[in-house]
Amino acid sequence: xxxxxxxxxxxxxxxxxxxxxxxxxxxxxxxxxxxxxxxxxxxxxxxxxxxxxxxxxxxxxxxxxxxxxxxxxxxxxxxxxxxxxxxxxxxxxxxxxxxxxxxxxxxxxxxxxxxxxxxxxxxxxx
Length: 126
Fold this sequence. Notes:
Layout: E1 2-7, E2 10-13, E3 18-26, E4 33-39, E5 46-52, E6 57-59, E7 67-72, E8 77-82, E9 91-98, E10 115-116, E11 120-125
């Protein structure tokens, strides 16, 4: 059992930065993979950035070099640092966790995750 609560979303100008946070509680055995996903209106959910307990990370091509996923284990918090934001980044962002340390390619697949937060909206204006 894992509970996830995202925060940090809001409105930002293009080119700006936002850091999303995901506060996690519950079994750490259910958090061997954690990731950020997003869904814009009319589009399917896509994996943005994810990591596993082995230190493996993966990013969507569209955000490589701009977004960074990290975690603070002491605070049980996952972060997504979003820099150089573009209008195309506008979406609802979801935090997700799973009990299996998925491989790099699997980390960005939404169907691999059992636990999901409620989402936080990020709106980038140009």
